[in-house]
């Protein structure tokens, strides 16, 4: 069976679904030698001879022109490439795919955020809704990352539950692991960090609910010695975020250092209103970092009993949990241990195996 991954949206600085796509492409290549990837950038772990280059102009971007170019590309060039290379199944890591697919498809739906927050996603929200409706009628299977999103897909579309496979995300255990305490001073100097810090990692879309985290921190900062470090692109934030001498914003960090940011943090706070999965919580636990997470969407599925949960609009509860983790060493040690046990359930190899199984089902249908 020949599988092609439509990774034409990838760029050199992957985040979120970009990381997912690169990791799954690499792991799929190990499981299925006849895996090809449509991409404008190299994919580590994929034979360069199996990377079919696509134009730079169609890469993922917040710019409308790039997205329009990719829409045209997906419906003209991708079908030609599929036929030219004799592909049996086209795997689409995001909900962008040819409207008239030339072969069976497996499409990943990570979440339904564009439907719930149309103001944050602009015109792409309408197209996302169209894509989901089209998926319901197309000859394809859907992969999603949590039971929560599967239920949402089945409720919002005519897709039957037996065509939706739940395949959780993974993480790279070679990258996301604890770093020695002896590395901390050099790391702190490198990034100008002066003391213990509370960490947030993710895009700053309003649904990530960073405002609640900032508001809670400002109300209690006198009770803890920590600074608040927010790592994520502010260009998607709808309004300015509060400035304070103890709040640090970093738009992007070197991916090679991300595990160090987790490992040297005293805690990660993930306050999103809801998530399709919640990758940063998983990565933090793998690095030995206690996790405080909202109970929105799929996050309880990921965190389980290895983190502390709160309602995403309950500032007081979040303040209390931050104080507990900051002050109670025994609680911190318990959360770290539970986190290490929890992440054993997840890996990119398991994710790729689940996707491969979906591709095999699609090919047989």
Task: Explain how this protein is built.
With 365 residues, the chain is an alpha/beta fold. It has two domains: 3-170 and 347-364, Glycogen Phosphorylase B (Rossmann fold, 3-Layer(aba) Sandwich); 181-343, Rossmann fold (3-Layer(aba) Sandwich). The protein has helices at 17-31, 64-84, 113-116, 118-121, 123-137, 147-156, 184-191, 210-220, 258-263, 279-286, 299-303, 315-327, 329-343, 348-364, and strands at 3-6, 35-39, 51-53, 89-92, 104-109, 140-144, 164-166, 197-201, 227-231, 247-250, 267-270, 291-294, 308-310. A seven-stranded parallel beta sheet has the order 3-2-1-4-5-6-7, sandwiched between helices. A six-stranded parallel beta sheet has the order 10-9-8-11-12-13, with helices on both faces. Strand 6, helix 6 and strand 7 form a beta-alpha-beta unit. Helix 1 (17-31) crosses helix 14 (348-364) and helix 10 (279-286) crosses helix 13. The chain is globular. The relative contact order is 0.13. The mean pLDDT is 92.
